[in-house]
Write a structure and sequence with these properties.
alpha+beta, 397 residues, Butyryl-CoA Dehydrogenase, subunit A, domain 2, Butyryl-Coa Dehydrogenase, subunit A, domain 1, Butyryl-CoA Dehydrogenase, subunit A, domain 3
Amino acid sequence: MAVDLTPTPDVADLARRTAEFVRDVVVPIEERTGGVARSEDVRIELQRAAKDAGVFAPHVAPEYGGHGLDMRGRAAVFEEAGYSLLGPLALNIAAPDEGNMHMLEAIATDEQKERYLRPLASGEIRSCFAMTEPAPGAGSDPSALTTYAEREEGGWRIEGRKWFITGAEGAGFAICMARTSGKPGEAGGATMFLVDADNPGMKTVRHIDTLDESLYGGHIELVFDNCRVPDDAVLGEVDEGFRYAQVRLGPARMTHCMRWLGIARRAQDIAVARAAEREVFGSRLGDLGMVQQMIADNEIDIAASRGLILQACWELDQGRSGSQSTAIAKTFCAEAVWRVVDRAVQICGSLGISGDVLLGRFLREVRPFRIYDGPSETHRWAIARRVMRRHDAEATR
């Protein structure tokens, strides 16, 4: 089957309008705030403007106010939104809300969609995904999950501690992963629960100080202490949480890549503009061989990242698992985006490390991407295991 990577006319038009919106509306706000939106006023201002521009919520179904794009369509639009750190927030496609919307559309009941998905898709509320735990709990190895839920009359009681829960501050609800059978280290036995923010059993411990700051709602440590939820708070089926997580995982890896690819392009544009205007040693920076190499290497990393993203998205759109292709794309993009931004800083020299441009902020924001959604080392291990399994299977035929 041929792989067609050309966006449809509708997608191309939406991507163009998104690019114009980000440059004309979002970038000035980003420059005003230093790339960090710390107030609801900024979020509301951005999202209202995106709605007015007709580019809001490109990923959700039209019945929830979106454009219903498939993964390949999202690749084009999300990259344009990601040209600014605040672009994804404006379009309501920032993590973790975007991934949660995708999962809720796929597995929530009709009642849960009305209660959680509809207001989330409209930007009325935000959400978080409570999976990661302090060591020795779940992290790169989800099976280490220690948070547990016990059935009781009329519902469940959740006990456990989570941390690095992005967006939890001010979120309207959490999707909490808790063990309902088995022991830590066993592959199955997890269940997802919808926990409202006003549940007295879900408490904020602290706001974790981190290298990155642009993901809205911060990175929070939560404790679930005698957290009681009703039976209808179960998302999907009991003990099937790890399987449902795969619905979210592959697409979420790719949408992260799409958004950060936009920032890589932005960094390259800043560096190229500087190389074109700055004169040293009797010539423009951009005419010097070593600078030209960095510019060329940036173009190569950007193009290769886009190709890997589109290949993985095509597989996901075909209904394939995309495990290998998404792992490869995530690993490469996380490292390539860092390289691009780092080279851009180098090309710009003292300007690059100053506050006069946002390259320093970009550098801090993209570095954690090599850790979250699976560290590069974990993905490489998984990629190699699949290759070895394929070899072993072919050898026994």
